[in-house]
Each structure stands twice: as structure tokens, then as C-alpha cells.
Hints:
The complex is a heterodimer of chains A (321) and B (347).
Chain A: H1 2-19, H2 24-29, H3 36-45, H4 52-65, H5 99-134, H6 139-153, H7 156-170, H8 189-215, H9 218-225, H10 230-260, H11 262-267, H12 273-283, H13 286-314
Chain B: E1 23-36, E2 39-52, E3 56-60, H1 67-75, E4 82-91, E5 94-95, H2 101-107, E6 112-115, H3 129-140, H4 145-158, H5 164-167, H6 177-190, E7 195-199, H7 207-224, E8 227-231, H8 235-241, E9 244-249, E10 252-258, H9 259-264, H10 269-275, H11 279-282, H12 317-321, E11 327-329, E12 332-334
Parallel strand pairs in B: 3-8, 3-9, 6-7, 7-8
Antiparallel strand pairs in B: 1-2, 1-4, 4-5, 9-10, 10-12, 11-12
Helix pairs in contact in B: 3-4, 3-6, 4-6, 6-7
The structure holds adenosine-5'-diphosphate, iron/sulfur cluster and magnesium ion.
Amino acid sequence: MLAPTVIIVMLITFTLGYYGPIDPVRAVLGEEWEDEARYAEVKKALGLDRPFVIQFLDYMGTMFGGHWGQSLSAFGGVASDRAVGEGRGAGFSGTSTGVREMVLGRLAISAQLSFWALVFLTVFAILLGVLAAVKQNTTVDYAIVTSSIIASSIPAYVIGPVLLIIFVLKIPVFKTVGGWDGMFSRQAILPAIVLATGPMLVIVRQTRAGIVEVLGKDFVRTARAKGMPERLVVARHMLRTAMIPVLTSLGLVTSGLLTGSLFVEQIFNIPGIGKLAIQTLMSGDHPVFMGVVLFQALIIVTVNLLTDLLYGGLDPRVTYD
Amino acid sequence: MATDTSSQPEIPLTGGAAPDRKPLLRIHELHTQFETKQGTVRAVDGLSLDLYEGEVLGLVGESGCGKTMTALSIMGLLPGNGQAVAGEINFEGKNLLQCSGEEMKKIRGARIAMVFQEPMTALTPTMTIGRQISEAMEIHLALGREEARERALELLDHVGIPSPRARFDNYIHQFSGGMRQRVMIAIAFSCQPRLLLADEPTTALDVTVQAQILDLIKHLAQEAGMTALFITHDMGIVAGSCDRVAVMYAGRMVEIGPVDDVLLNPRHPYTQGLLGSVPSLESKPGDRLYSISGLPPDLVSLPTGCKFWLRCPLADDRCREDEPELEQYGQSQAACWKVMPPRDVAA
Ligand SMILES: Nc1ncnc2c1ncn2[C@@H]1O[C@H](COP(=O)(O)OP(=O)(O)O)[C@@H](O)[C@H]1O
Ligand code: SF4
Ligand SMILES: [Mg+2]
């Protein structure tokens, strides 16, 4: 199942990249690109003069071969500094110019950030969702749902700076404004919270709906008829069933977090995969950008697979054979 | 003589129970209502009923007459829009309707257990059946997890589940309807409650399994000297399993007495109608047996007088205006104008 999916994903990303707006030759040459001889020379060096099919096969070979090609900075590295806008050249920073090293290195950081965001989500959003459901149609319920709506509708690029102002400038809980110092550093807390606010509403709502649906079930009444404390009725008899739809959302959210930490990484200046995507897009570092896109697509596929496997953990009726 | 159980608790009408028995549960003038868009549904409307230690009382009546809501009122587990608005349910010195949530949790499962009608939906699909049995014992009997597990295994064996050790970690989807009901029964008996409420425990099962489950409940209840309220709409089950029978109609009691007496000598036309569908009794000569036509009344706007008059072949003006109360006839009680001896001309 995995292999054909990967090939299709590769074909799509490659085609998009091939016909897309980034011209790698121009990125390498910078202002020199108008020189036709130089242009043709670099194009040939990069192997871009070959037919589409050959290029694609070559690309697949590189990818399955495991080293994923080289950043354009390996080809002279001149152009990077002339690339557009801010954060230029960042894609070329570091010692390695191998696409795999760059993508994996950045991904590790994004993964750590996403992990915390996911922890916040599963702990707080699910807790709030359960609470809202149990206190259905009371002020508590309305307060939780309303604040989740607010939290999720304010974009990260608004919440981020606001939190920075509050917790760095006004009440200096955190000393530095951004950057990354490992997942167990204090700097990881704010960005993870901001990252978690976006999908918050989805999870709160799903959890609430899941629990509300289970609330009236016969088996919940049976659990109560046994005299079980309400806390155990929820935890043992309701949560697992209610979590089945939530898991679907959590799967989508997880791939979303890993691939969409773009704004958050930008705001908090975290060198994650989102930031790498923006930088390479801006600088025109085609091979790295392609690596990022392909990798993100693969993450989504993998997370979906994992989600399917987790269903089995939640629902005893699901079997894999 | 009109007798009101409520005003004379010191000389209670035992409704056919042995006079030396003590009541374990006393329901007095229970009113359970649902607030709906259509209005107030009077699901239980002034029901009084005593359950004596060690007896098995059958509670019968057509679907929708308030049997389940009576049981759920006792358990304090009415659905959200329902409430026991008036009356008393006395059990072991407490009025259950006045008990706090915490007090009820100590009673539910431990002192009063309930077996539900639907074995397909009444057990949690995401929890092993073993844990569903053992968890209540951990709470009520303060057993450790291992002890509770051992007891649950014994219970599984006792209710007739083969190879309990292998079955302990199964989920309900791996069980047949009858097996699920056995698990329900194991749960109900696990904490040795005093009172068992069995709400149509065999209705949803195959006919072949029904008798086995019935026998199992009877056997276990007898073994434990348990008092049981056996809800059913099957007169055959009443005949085979109960000591006394109470007949409900539109949220109230219309007849109660020893099973033999009520089944052979039904006083209330409604009881007679219910029995009309039992073939073995149909052959009895000289009886006015018939099947009831029509539907039960709308519980939002009940008719005046006897609630059965719309469907009663004997109804007259008095029936339409005044509601009869329960009165003693021989060993049983019935609420019907037409069985009062001086007026019982139609019989
Ligand atoms: N949640 C509810 N809302 C409104 N009415 C209800 C609700 N549950 C039960 N009822 C009504 O209460 C009456 C008694 O129901 P029930 O006790 O379940 O009858 P049964 O004798 O079949 O067990 C029924 O007429 C039903 O319509
Ligand atoms: S009181 Fe009248 S209407 Fe009611 S059951 Fe008796 S005879 Fe029928
Ligand atoms: Mg019922």
C-alpha cells in the first residue's frame, strides 16, 4: 500500500515542481541568468535539459537511493545571497548541502514542536471537550466552546506576537524572544501553545460531540447502575468510544501540525521544516524545496496509516489480518 | 371497603404476600414525569407497591405503561428530562428519592442491582467483559484488582460461561445475546445486592435461550435469598417464575395478588385482556376472555375516570367520571368498579 502511494505522491510533487514557478537555473545564476550561454551551461549541469520522463526516473532513483540529492548551494552557492527577501540563504546554512540531512535536521525540530502541541491538544482540548459534554448546555459548556472558537479563529501570527509581548516584555516569564534550544527548553512552550490553538476547536468539538453521543447509551446507564463513580464512568466506559471520531481529527491535525507550523516557526524564529519550506521557496533552492514537499506528503500518508492502526487500539471490533 | 395503602401503613395491604414478611422496598404514590414539547408525560402516576423480603414480584403491562420508568426511578437513573416529582421509595430505612448522588452510588450495584432488557447495547463495547464484572466489586467490596478478578472468574463460571479464563478478556462483540445476558447477570449478582430489578431480561433473546436465562436468574436469586422485581409483558414468565404479580396500566397499578389467584381469577378487565393472549388459560370455561383492542391512553392528557375505559368493554358512565382505587378481593386487589361485589352485575 505504501510503495504505490509514495510513487504517486512523488509524481505529483515532481510534476508540480517541473512546471512550477521556481527556476533553479535562475536561482543559481542570480543576475547572470540573462546570459544565455551561462544559462544553458548551468541547465545542463543540473540535468534540467533532459526530457521530463528521464528527469523523473532520475529523481526517483535519487530518492529511493536514499541521499535525496543536493542543495543548489552545492552548485557554487553564489545565488543564495542574492535571493529574494528575508531569511535568504538560510536554506543553505549549516555544514551540509545534502537534501536529506537538511530536511531531516529541520524536521526533527518541527517534530518536537508538534509533539508538544499534540500533547497540549490531547490533554487540554480533550479534557475541555469532556467537561463541556458532561456539563452540556450549562455556562461551563458555553464558556469552553466559545473560548475555543475564539482561540482557534485568531491566526497564529496574531496570537504569537501577543503572547510574546505579554510573556516576554510585560511579565518576563521567558527571557528570549524566539529561537530553538531543544524540546525541553522553556522556549518550546509558547510556540507549542500557539501551534495548538489552531486545531483546538476541532478537537474540543469532536470530543464534546463524541461524549454527548455516548452519554445516553445503554451501556453508560449500566455502568451507572453498577454504582461506578462518574469519573470512572467517563474514563472507562465513554472515552474510548467517544475517541474514535476524535482520532480521525487528531490524525489530520498531526499532519497539519508537522507541515503547517509555517507561521509559528516564522514568528518564533524556529529553524523547523516550515521555515525551511519558506526559505527554499524564496531562494529558489528547488531540490531542497522538493524534498520538503515530498517529505510532508509522506508524513501525511504515514500519519494516516498510524491513525488506522490506532483505531484497532480503541475499537476492539477492528481487526487486522 | 375502600382501602388506601398510604393512609394505613400500620395495617398494610400485603396484596397477597405472606403476612409475616417484611417489606424490603416500599414505593408510595410515586409520580415520575417527563417534560416534553408536547407537555408533561405522566409515565408513573401515583404508583404504590411493596416488595417483601425474599419474594419475586412480577410487574406486567403493555409496552409503555411505565414498568421501566418505575425501575429507573428506584435506581435514580431516569433519563435527563425525567424526574420522580412526588412520592417516596423507601429502602433499608432511606427514601431513595431524597438520597444524594453519593448515597445512591453506594446503593446502586451494591444493594440494588438491575438487569437491563437489551444485552446487545447494555454492555460497554470497548471494555473486556471481565473488567466490567470486576470493577464494581473493586468499588463496593473494596477488593484489590486481583481478588476482584478471581471473583469475576468464579462468577463467570457460576452463570454458565464456559472457560472463564479464556473469556475474561473478551469483548462483548465476541458473545451471543444469551451469553451477554449471562454477563449482565454476573454483574448484577457480583456485589450480592438485596434487591434485583430485572427489566424484561429475556425479551430480546431467542425463545430457546429465554428459558435458560430465566432459570439462571431464578436459581441465583433463590440461592442468595434475594428479593426481585421481575418486569415482563409475558404472562407465561409470570406464571413460571413469580410469587406475586402486579399489573400496571397507564402508570398506575390496576391489580396485584398472588400469581395463582390473579392468573386463574383475574378481576380487572385489563388483566383479563392480557391473559386473553395466553392460550393455556383460554380454555378455561365460562371466562370473559378477550384481546384488548385499541391503544393505551396518551400519557400527556389522560382521560378522566378509569384510565382503561376507552378500551374496556364494561365501561359505563361512572367509569368515565370516577377513577376506581385498589380494593381487596379475596387474596388480591384490583382497581375496577365492576368487580366491586355489589355492583359486579356485568360479570
Ligand atoms: N425520555 C423520555 N421522554 C418522554 N417520555 C418518555 C421518556 N422515556 C419514556 N417515556 C414515556 O414513559 C412511558 C413509560 O415508559 P416505560 O417505563 O419505558 O414503559 P415500559 O412499561 O414499556 O417499560 C412511555 O409511554 C414513554 O413514552
Ligand atoms: S372501572 Fe370501568 S372502565 Fe375501568 S376497568 Fe373497570 S369496568 Fe372497565
Ligand atoms: Mg420497558
